[in-house]
Design a protein that fits this description.
Two copies of one chain form a homodimer. With about 350 residues, chain A is α/β, with parallel strands linked by helices. The first copy, chain A, has helices spanning about 5-15, 20-35, 105-125, 140-150, 165-175, 185-190, 235-240, 250-255, 270-275, 295-310, 330-335; strands spanning about 1-5, 40, 45-50, 55-60, 65-75, 85-95, 100-105, 130-135, 155-160, 180-185, 195-200, 205-210, 220-225, 230-235, 245, 270, 290, 315. In chain A, strands 1, 2, 3, 4, 5, 6, 7 and 18 form an eight-stranded mixed beta sheet that branches. Chains A and B meet through helix 1, strand 4, strand 5, strand 6 and strand 7 of A and helix 1, strand 4, strand 5, strand 6 and strand 7 of B.
């Protein structure tokens, strides 16, 4: 049987574990996979574009497990009360090819994106970081600040978004976790003196949400909103002020902030910092920039984490036939009595 | 909510519709999609290879619907009572990117493969075809002969397989459908004078299951067992005796029978015959050969067919969040009371 984790089950699971613990433990799985990065099969995502959006499949494998995420991006969805980005994922056993787990990944992607940001910051930001500027109060914003609280001990958050209702939503959600949250009237006000600056905006085109004069020495920038060709959040000169870290250069050079600069602009791969092969932050005054676009390995880690959390406790789907004779697929269909394809001793959703 | 069709639900559905009607109607959907072939986005399948098998994703879209199939191939699985090939599929709405249907596709692939074979034969075989040789009594064999009965009115089947138990299984399954089934002691005996010859064997490497001297003029050959690089069933000279029809040349030249011959060996695309743009069988005495490897559009048609059959009657999964505010994903996770993510007026699998 294949395990299934729907939205309500995922939601319950996160609340049961506690969102801070969930983010911290998930970051541990992601870091573990980044440390064995060369092991992973890294394929390009397979995109199907239409006039209104894109549907992508993002597969990867470590040789023992295979995972993929289905994810869509439809900016017009919000007009009808739907989400711009949703997703689900599958984890399978490489030895048999059988799928083991199907799970919602809309919430899980929000969690893994935040966990990845904080994991990167744990390696790159100053150890005494306490103040975070959160630029953008969209669906990802609360996940971000909670991950930074869980992994780095951030105490104070300054939130900026031109959408007042979004800021109020953010403050209501984030304040219950004991963070000091203040509203910034401008981006400059939010960023001034902050130890960590996270940009997660929905700006379109080549924006310059963050410009060089806003920044103090020693800041860590976590840029997650620029994640497709033609969409960037940082002024190009910001990239030249510090040291840029990326997930997977071939993808980031197309989708990330560094699409604005020359194709051989120097970057450091995050996995090399985490595995000790490259230097992260070299000095207290250095500006570090994580130019994050999201990568299949992070989804793989999230699938692996959820499978370990939910082993034998989730709903089961009869997605794959159980057969007595592998040469006889037809027999069960022919019988007049219903074929026995689910085990009687487990939960089942169809008789 | 996302519809779910598991193995037991699919099995019930096929029995309810009746397997012959199911195959005939499914063939109608496949033919409809072949006739609008140029509309489809045709991407290469995305394969992840390991030492013991392969896992593939096969996506396609007609601009309104998007579908993909997950399929594995693990020859060693039968040693532990598992199937060599299993699969599941997803159909999504291009307009929103939301998945509409997740279904098992192990049974459904067997059905669509047979329906495709018979649909091709309806266009290519002699109209008076009554006798079929079935070479190979594996998991696909019963589906094949029933599809040919449903679409072409085949009355007599000669079955050949060196595995006696497999032949017995085939006969027990197929005879209940009013077909005259006889066992052939050799391939030549089965093929001699048959109107249609279907090869669906598990032979490895470059086999020559069918050789030129076995064949009578006017035979239609339906070759479905050779479907990956290095695996073929027909002697190369058989291909030169007749006219070869294929699904998608770039894929068939790598995976099909024609991998044995020169790269510019002349072939006709089946969709062109079905849409009237190319000639199929030109004479009663001609040998026609359908060199079939399976293609994503056939899975797409099958997904579309199953969706239309099961609309509003299947199990529902809460795979995608329903949100009041697209900018607030976090809120539902924070609430102490369980978030309401499933509609109360529909079936649900988790509260």
């Amino acid at each position: 049987m294949t395990q299934f984790i729907g939205v309500s089950e995922m939601s319950k699971l996160v609340r049961k574990v506690g969102v801070l613990d969930f983010l911290r433990d998930l970051a541990g799985y992601i870091e573990e996979d980044f440390r064995r990065w060369p092991l992973f099969e890294k394929a390009a995502r397979v995109a199907s574009h239409s006039k209104v959006g894109v549907i992508e499949l993002m597969p990867t494998s470590d040789g023992a497990l295979y995972g993929f995420k289905y994810v869509n991006g439809h900016p017009g969805n919000t007009a009808t009360g739907k989400l711009t980005v949703t997703g689900f994922g599958v984890l399978a056993d490489v030895a048999t090819g059988y799928p083991m787990l199907i799970t919602e990944m809309t919430l899980l992607t929000a969690l893994r994106t935040a966990a990845t940001s904080a994991m990167a910051a744990r390696a790159l930001a100053r150890r005494d970081s306490k103040v975070m500027a959160m630029i953008g109060a969209g669906a990802q914003s609360e996940f971000q600040v909670l991950a930074f609280k869980a992994l780095l001990g951030i105490e104070e958050v300054r939130i900026y978004d031109p959408d007042r209702a979004a800021v109020q939503k953010f403050m209501a959600n984030a304040q219950t976790f004991g963070l000091k949250v203040t509203r910034a009237e401008t981006i400059s006000e939010g960023v001034a003196g902050a130890d960590i600056v996270t940009t997660a905006t929905a700006v379109k085109g080549r924006a310059a949400v963050i410009t060089p004069e806003m920044l103090s020495p020693g800041t860590h920038i976590n840029a997650i909103g620029g994640d497709c060709p033609g969409k960037t959040e940082l002024h190009a000169d910001v990239l030249r002020m510090g040291k840029v870290f990326v997930e997977y250069p071939p993808q980031t050079r197309i989708e990330g902030e560094i699409q604005q600069v020359e194709p051989d602009f120097p970057v450091t791969e995050l996995w090399q910092v985490l595995s000790g092969a490259a230097v992260g932050r070299a000095a207290k005054d250095e500006i570090t920039i994580f130019d994050s676009v999201g990568f299949a390995v992070e989804d793989f880690s999230a699938l692996r984490f959820v499978r370990d959390l939910t082993l034998a406790r989730s709903t089961e789907l009869d997605l794959i036939p159980e057969v007595a004779n592998p040469k006889d697929l037809f027999g069960p269909l022919l019988r007049t009595a219903p074929a026995r394809v689910v085990r009687p001793d487990t939960d089942r959703i169809s008789a």
